[in-house]
Sequence to fold (381 residues):
Amino acid sequence: VVVIGIGGSYAGTKAVDDAIAHKYQGWIDQASAQIPIVYAGHNLSESELVELIDLMDAKQPLVNIISKSGTTTEPSVAFRVIRRYLEQRFGVEQSARRIVATTDKDKGVLRSLAEEQGYKTFPIPADIGGRFSVLSCVGLIPLALAGYDIKLLLEGADGVFESIRSADDLSQEPVVQYAAARIAAFESGKAVEVLAIPEPRLIGVLEWWKQLFGESEGKDGKGLVPTGLVFTTDLHSLGQMVQDGVRNLFETVITCKNATKTGGASVERSIKVPHLSGNCDQLNYLEGRSISEINMAAIKASQLAHFDGGVPGVELNIATVDLHTLGALFAFFEVSCAIGGVLLKVNPFDQPGVEEYKKNLFGLMGKPGYEELGGSIRSRL
Ligand code: PA5
Fold:
């Protein structure tokens, strides 16, 4: 499944697939039932597109083009290239059956193109912005195409929404407490929020979270800069900065006692440190402990060290990493982000800064209607 989209049009899908899919399945068993999701149109890398076409050549690709506006340069360009590739390989009629378009219900060039070409389409609700759209057709369709049980994601999200809806005292809800803690951190002079994730398989969630908070809050000179720490890799790089650098940080740590894979096509198993006679590597004190247990201890050790080093923060504890939990995490962060925007007095649902760059690019590349802007940018450059 080739997902063509950028920002909120692909980040949620990637977050789920990265967290659940077996990382090496395609290498172990090419005929595996796990359907890989790959991405295009999330950058302007020509070399990535060349390699993706090589991959498509070896496979039977199905393409989901996702763009709410239908005019974003990166996915539009990638889609034109990939569409040409499909049409040359399968013919116009057959390639139309391999293309699914997710876009605005009524308007935009992608909507007209899809209708003209007879693509299967799914609507993006008008009142849902890109970075809040993972639980809409934007995230759900590609995940369903790849075989994920998307009901589990929605059930996980519903649990969070329901708990907020039925709360007697909203101030006791974690979603409100997280929003309040972050804004308090900002108001007391913190500039950066570090989201520490326990597992590389959550890097996609981290990237999705960075977009959600960065695009929603970064307005009018406000907002915490969202960045991340991947445990334990980054303790050996950025960790020094967090422990001892500029004291303008707030840290949110996601902890997870059972991070072994339990969903999708993944395996569920544990690896424990074996006994070594002679103990020449001096690790027998860890004998019988699982890697996850050691990881958890490393997280706790760093959490305390960072706190002692002057980095306040909060902990979000999740039971496991599966579709249900991911749905809950999406709902949790989305609602918290919206509340945070209100507390900060910014509109969390627009992204005027991103639109600025999009317009400049139109001008620079000579899009009709943007000639004047293009001229003035070129003279400044
Ligand atoms: O959150 C947002 O609204 C943005 O990041 C958009 O998702 C991104 O710019 C892509 O826009 P579109 O779906 O219109 O191509």
